[in-house]
Amino acid sequence: METNINTSPKGLITANDMNIHFADEVVRHSGANLNKCYHCMTCAGGCPFSRATDFAPNSVIRLVQLGLKKEALECSTIWICVGCHTCSIQCPMGIDMAAIMDTLRHIAIKEGAAVAEPDILNFHRDVLHSIKHYGRTHKIEVMLRYKARKWEWFSDLGVGIKMLAKRKLHLRASKVESIDVIRKSFQPKQIRVAHE
User: Fold this and answer.
1) Which domains, from first to last, does the chain contain?
2) Is the model's pLDDT at 25 over the cut of 60?
3) pLDDT, tens digit, for every residue of 109-147?
């Protein structure tokens, strides 16, 4: 089987394509020193989703290092990453790739970059909606919202029935007792400005 691991962006890179402050922004927000990466590709070898991505984890780091902000924010890799930390654990330099991917997703959303995997973003939003409403995920509701959006009602019905039979899915949502505490975490933070 072939792996789909590109090691560099397509085309020539010009100075106009580069954002010299991008790497600093990613390091500042993620807390991960991506400049320690020497591109050994150990992260790519450990990533369970590398065959589904357009860039290996180290190649995403390279895009950031080169200041190729548009390419980094619009690649599918940042959305396919599930944050399992397999790449981080195997990295000989201990780079927290999951934090870098998470930071890139946040920047992409904040700046309105084209989302390479909109279904994944919408699935995340459905999960957050469920947590905000119930204090935990109601898996059936999340899956039904996803299926309704995709119009793929029966594509994995067999799996759903097996999960119901094993009591892994519940028809009724259960709520946590202190739902107000959970909902409070979804409210925007108030920034206090000191007046002189």
Assistant:
1) 15-111 (1.10.1060.10), 118-181 (no CATH)
2) yes
3) 899 888 877 777 777 788 877 777 777 777 777 777 777
What does the alpha-carbon distance between residue 124 and residue 122 come to, in Å, rounded to a whole number? Answer: 5
In the chain, pLDDT over 90 holds for what percent of residues?
Answer: 25
- Residue 49 and residue 117 in contact, taking contact as beta carbons nearer than 8 Å: no
Higher per-residue confidence, 164 vs 63: 63
